Each structure stands twice: as C-alpha cells, then as structure tokens.
Amino acid sequence: MVKEALRTHLILLIAGMMGAMTAAAQTPGATGTKINDVENPVAQVRNHRSWEYGPFLNWGSGVGNRSNFKFFWGGFELGKVLTPVLRAGALTGQFELAGNIMPLWQAYTPPPHMSSYTCNENGQSVACQLPTGGGTFYGVSLTPVIFRWNFLTKSRRVQPWFQAAGGLIYTTHKFPPNYYSNPNANPPLDGGTSVWNFTPQGGGGIHYFLRPGRSIDLGVNAVHISSASLGDRNPGVNASIQIQVGYTFWR
Description:
The chain is an alpha+beta fold. 15% of the residues lie in helices and 56% in strands. It is built from 3 helices and 13 strands. It has helices at residues 2-25, 34-39, 41-48, and strands at residues 51-62, 70-81, 93-108, 113-121, 124-132, 136-151, 158-175, 179-182, 189-191, 194-198, 201-211, 214-225, 237-250. The strands form 3 sheets. The chain has an 8-stranded antiparallel barrel. Strands 4-5 form a two-stranded antiparallel sheet. A two-stranded antiparallel sheet has the order 8-9. A hairpin with a 7-residue loop joins strand 1 (51-62) and strand 2. 27% of the residues are buried.
C-alpha cells in the first residue's frame, strides 16, 4: 500500500511539473506561441511569414550635377515574407518579395531658362545663349520587383531590412529636361531625352510596430534614373537620395 501511494504521488508530481513547464512555455517570451505573437509583433510577422500592404510617401533630392532636382512620390506597396529564418551569421534573416505602384510621381527641376554655351558661328567658337528645358514633371512609376532582406532581431518593435529593386517611370514630358546636346553644331542639336526611364535602386530601413499587425515604416533609398538610351540621349539622374515614410498593415 505504501509503495502504491508513493507511486501515485510520484505520478502526480511528474504530471504537475509537466503542467507547470507547459504553462511556463506559454507565458510571454516563449518563441512562437500565440501569447508571444500578441506581445511581440516582430515575431508574429516572422513566424507567420506575413503579407504586408500599405501607402507610402517619398521625398528626395538629386546629388552631384542634379542637386537642384527635387522629387515627391506617393504610392502603395504589397509584399510577402517567403522564407523561414535563414541562418547566415550576422546576416541571418528572411527573404521577402514586394512591389509598389506610384500614381503620384513628380520631379521639380529649374524652370526653363537660357544657358551659356560655346557655339560654332562661321567656323568660329563664340559664346551664346540657348534655351534649356525645365519645370515640374508629372508621371507614374511601377516597381514590380523589390528583393528585401528582413534581419533577424530580438527587438519586439523594430524590424530592420535592406533591399534592391528595379522599376519603370513614365512621364508626360521627356525627362530629364531637354537641352542642347551639341551647341557646336550649326544649327545646335536639340538633346531629346525620353518619357520612359528605369529606376535601379537600393537602400535600407526599419518597420516600427505600433501594435500587432501595424507598423510605421522609414526607409532611405539611392535611386538611379536612366532611359537606357531609349531617347536621342541619356543624361539621366545618376543618383538621388529618397526618404520614404509609410504605414503598413500585416496579415
């Protein structure tokens, strides 16, 4: 009888310990549990490989010889975390595929003006003034491929990432502004550009989660704008720095 009582107490003790361990595993901080997902929005997205979608705005400036170009863009982004966590040392994280569309695309350039050139007049090089285009340009942009890497983080609020992407812009007038490509010709040759331009780009940023399924997003991208010689010439915008702010829903 004593042995049976001891055996019964031992079984109850083991069962109690197992129950306590199970309860402890389900408390906040245990990886992958529903309670943890509620209190850790970053882990929720990571564990569920969530979809993301939401609006964003961009403000940017050209650099170098395009530093007097300013940009304002707005659109909508859609993405999906595709992989589990992939171990790669300091680069450990997950791969996400995304894209965006920007029905609001504006570039602000110096207004049309006269520029100084050296022209060919009767075989002589002389100073001259020739018209250069400018003003505000309007268009739409599509970035169908965004390759994003979401870093593994212990933070419950901040998800850092970096990305590489490529897109296409259509503008209602040729961009960048036309100017004379060969002022030494007689007459000078108008340097037509293109209404179509491509936007290879790369950058990084963070999602800051306000609560599960909602984040404010901040990113910085370096964007190159080039017509790939679709026009008569391809001056492009060698580099611009774009700051992006958005609001994302996660499902």
